[in-house]
Amino acid sequence: MPTEVRFVILGLATATLLLCAASSPALTVDQSQSQSNTPRDVDVPFVVSAPSVVRTMLEMAKVQKQDFVIDLGSGDGRIVFHAAQKYGARGLGVEIDPKLVETAVEDTQKLKLGGLVNFRVQSLLETDLSPATVITMYLLPDVNLQLRDKLLQLKPGTRVVSHDWEMGDWQADEMRVIQNPEKSLGLEKTSKVFLWVVPTRLAGRWCGQIHKENEAITVNIDIEQRYQELSGSLSITTADAGTKKTVRKIPIRTNLVGNRFVISHGNQDIVTDADDAGLTLSADAPRPVHIADIGVNPLLGRRFPFFNTVPLAEPVRLTRGSDCMNARTTPVK
Ligand SMILES: C[S@@+](CC[C@H](N)C(=O)[O-])C[C@H]1O[C@@H](n2cnc3c(N)ncnc32)[C@H](O)[C@@H]1O
Q: How many Å apart are CA 66 and CA 144, to the nearest integer?
């Protein structure tokens, strides 16, 4: 953002803060969590997200009762309140301005949400984000970038939603533009909402086996990962009298969505689900997926990539490993 625009915004924020200071009743707030509450800590001015934007942010994050929502720079607490009131989710608002926290604490009591939500005077850059399953933010692009590495370390599957601002080259999984006639900033009366799902870390080699008659067919996947973008290959290898033969190598270039990615193979799809212990490959039902063409070439009289495809009738389980020829399959429950 150009410095002058940021300067104007900060000017507006200062005016808002002065107005708040003049109108807020004196309340007591525990500031024990506050670090150094100096003006340079205020990275972003106080501007509220309109109710339609708040609704969209929480809808896109698919907030549910079991979620724990942390709003970074919680302002008057509206995002955390909405998550608690509409979805029954627990929440924490982290805010540098003690007066805004005082108001949010008062409103918590008025709304009888004391068991579900909390507000804390603290710098968002110093907040422990690890309990969150959903992070919401209406900050600025450079603040989003400062947070990016920390967000990527969160539990895979954690949803991050940001009002208006992106996250550098970490592409959003979803973006919505909504009409926002009440928007007080800028000429455009629209808001953008971006959603990222913290990707599972999948880089490396994954191994497993398919058994066909007496033959063990080794399946391995080599993955390179950049955020949710995956590239690499899926290889099918047979061992014949001690000789390894890679019969099929399928390139992978796809995006991880949550814990799932899809490997396109011809006009068929292999769906791959990741969990703590490994990857599970399965056919994109109802179509069977044939992942290898292995047969006896009648002319050469020996094993050769030919026909007799191996259907992916049962899910195949892959675990982390470097020596795929010695991989052992574990039954898929
Ligand atoms: C644009 S407002 C968003 C308010 C609310 N989240 C919403 O969407 O309506 C940004 C908020 O971040 C707060 N803030 C700015 N710098 C902060 C920091 N370093 N740590 C915590 N909060 C901060 C501001 O005081 C302001 O309330």
A: 26
Residue type, 26: A
Name the residue with tokens 């007799």.
Answer: 308
Probe ligand 1: pick from 97, 107, 161, 193, max atoms within 8 Å of CB?
Answer: 97
Q: How far is the CA of 230 from the centre of ligand 1 (A)?
A: 34
Considering the domain boundaries, does residue 10 fall inside one? no
In a domain, 66, yes or no: yes
What pLDDT score does 99 carry? 97
101 with 161, same domain: the answer is yes
From the CA of 164, how far away is ligand 1's center (Å)?
14
Cα–Cα distance between 236 and 307 in angstroms, integer? Answer: 14
96 lines ligand 1 (CB under 6 A): yes
Q: What is the pLDDT of residue 275?
A: 87
Q: Which of 41, 42, 140, 193 to mutate to test the pocket of ligand 1 (most atoms within 8 A of CB)?
A: 42
pLDDT in tens, 17-56: 333 333 333 233 444 444 444 444 668 999 999 999 999 9
Quick: pLDDT tens for 94-152.
999 999 999 999 999 999 999 999 999 999 999 999 999 999 999 999 999 999 999 99
d(CA 24, CA 322) in angstroms, rounded, equals 62
